[in-house]
Amino acid sequence: MKLFTPNTDSIFDFYDKGKFLLAYRVSLLFLIAFTFLSVIYLINDVNSMLTIFLTEILIIATFIHLKVTKNFKPFFWIYTIIGTLIINFSLNYLLSLTHYVDFIWIMVVVSLAFIGLGPKYGFLFLIVNILGLAYFFCFTLNLHIGIIESKKPLQLLVDFIEVSFALLAIGYLLMEFVRYQKHTEEILRVVNTNLEDQNMLIQSKNLENETLLKEIHHRVKNNLQIIISLLRMQSNEMKSEESKMYFTEAINRIMAIFLIHQKLYGEKELSKINLESYIEELVNDIITVSLNQNRIKLFIKSNVKDLSLETIMPLGLLINELASNSLKHAFADENGKISIVINQTGDKFDFDYSDNGSWKPPISDRVSFGVELIDILTDQMNGSMVLNTDKGTHYSFQLTNL
Length: 402
What we know:
This protein has a 5-stranded mixed sheet with strand order 1-2-3-5-4, covered by helices on one side. The chain contains 10 helices and 5 strands. It is of the alpha+beta class.
């Protein structure tokens, strides 16, 4: 029916189109119904004509405005404001009328406010109408009961028609609300489906990238392992103990890097390494190579949950250098203990390394190279270092998680 379904091609938003059609159809139905009621009231009850006449003028003006401009927003404001005023005027000044239908019209007005103006204004008009009802019950109802007379059959029929029409209006508003709700749910369903598809695609890409990264770490690990094996073979052929020591130092430094790639290849998350496990395995390998494994105790404590790969690499080399120096120069004739404690605070972390050995003077300049390497690695991690040799050797570093 074109009369009830005007052209809405110029309105593109679903909800705006729905609100315009709701405003148009409600105005049209009100126009038909109140025209019919005004004729009946004009014949049977002239006293009721004032509210009917005011309502009729409001409906005609709103319907014309909608038809011409297709701007539905004034409709909701006019119907809720003027409707509230007319209802409360009828309740408190037209005392000869039965007002049960006014309570239903209040529901219509409040429903229009919620649908057309939003929850904030819906609650506002709800409160205003509740206050109007409170005034009616406190100051007008008893007077109204004393004045009201029995209705004639035709008057009862008119009241029934008005009540029925008001209930139909509420039903239509509820139907439109349900339609909006279903449309919203459908949009959410489509959006969720698209998000799920995108998430599956992202997960697939992440899995593919993770597999590639693991393969890279695996290949790097294997290459480093080959280098370590070649260096060890070359070291075994050397007759000079000093040359063998240099090769062992180089192997240990490569081992620190090798263990990082080995850990990354074995972890579920490529961006995270169990730091305590890594340090323990690294230092134990150094102890094993030094043939002091039965005389050295290792203590490790760390609250670090996550360090970047850019930090773990120089940190591993730093620990390798410190542990190698301790084993070479601190535990020659005694049992020993190496302690490593790491505490993270924000993007900084404190790294304490200590041993309980008695350092002996170096026989060459190898220690000076180790000290220089420690300084380089500390600078690489934007850190600082304090050395204390009163009881054993104690390094205190403050480093940055790069």
